[in-house]
Amino acid sequence: MNMNEQDSIKLIFLGDITGRQGRTAVKSYIASLKKKPDFVIVNIENASHGFGLTKKNYDDLSSSGIDCFTSGNHIWDKKDIYEYIDEANNLIRPINYPKGTKGRGSQIFEVKGQKLAVINVLGRVFMPPIDSPWQVVIDEINKLKEAGTEHIIIDFHAEATAEKICFSKYLANTYNTEDNALIKCFFGTHTHVLTADEKIYNGMAYITDAGFCGAVDSVIGMEFETSLRRLSTSLPERYEISESPIAQINGVEVLIDRTKSTQIKRINVTVNNENNERGNYEESE
Q1: Catalytic residue numbers, as ranges
Q2: Which of 41, 120, 218, 235 could bridge to 92 as Cys pair (CB 3.0-4.6 Å)?
Q3: CA-CA distances (angstroms) from residue 203 to 59, 188, 270?
């Protein structure tokens, strides 16, 4: 193994865990990996019955090999989050909530002797009102750069594809060149649909949406019948998590060296939660 291979970081990012079926499948998937990645990030804003994250589920997932948890607009849906988020050093919430909001919007980790920071950001197009991310994120990146951070990973939790693409290009053009990238990865989340536009741009691994981890037989993790009634009648209807045993795992695998990301592959795996059997495994070339 040469020095570059020793220094390189294999990172896995998984899209929004949705409900019990998503939690079970993710734990099974990570445990089944023959070669463990150097760093695992998972978005968990929908992990507890589709809305928010309970302390019980956070503790359970923390013991499964996940290094960092990102979130989004649903992170506050389970009220016990206020009791433990300040002490949960590997759990981050969107950085562009107002100053004084509990929790943290970024965190630095040491991976193979290198400083790797994760920033969580919330978009504003077709989303609940939130502070503008532009200057907030720039200020945080500059602060992390001054602290000697070598790699910055961003989870941009947003609805509009144009907002994700524009923000990612702005950051890559501002901080990266093809041979020297500070922003190593920019992953979109929130829509629960894995997009097919993964690429390396100016040394930054990018995908518009990393999809979700939850029941295959569902509407982005929710039961079809309740979703149908809500969407066809426009009347209030409580969403219910699908209990279908076949779950999908969506995300990306990225290889990072000291100066840039060198490879990104889509992850699309099915897991049978009744017998822990892996199903089809598909990834981009």
Answers
A1: 74
A2: 120
A3: 35, 17, 30
Q: What percent of the chain has pLDDT over 70?
A: 95
DSSP 169: H
Whether the Cβ atoms of residue 49 and residue 66 lie closer than 8 Å to each other = no
The amino acid present at 64, given as its one-letter code, is S
For the chain, domain boundaries: 3-282
The answer to whether the CB of 85 falls within 8 A of the CB of 91 is yes
Q: What CATH number labels 3-282?
A: 3.60.21.10
3-class SS of residue 165: helix
SS3 per residue for the chain: CCHHHHHCEEEEEECEEEHHHHHHHHHHHHHHCCCCCCEEEEECCECCCCCCCCHHHHHHHHCCCCCEEECCCCCCCCCCHHHHCCCCCCECCCCCCCCCCCCCCEEEEEECCEEEEEEEEECCCCCCCCCCHHHHHHHHHHHHHHCCCCEEEEEEECCCHHHHHHHHHHHHHHHEECCEECEEEEEEECCCCECCCCEEECCEEEECCECEEEECCCECCECHHHHHHHHHHCCCCCCCECCCCEEEEEEEEEEECCCCEEEEEEEEEEEECCCCEEEEEECCC
Bridge partners (DSSP) of residue 69 are 42, 91
* Reported pTM: 0.94
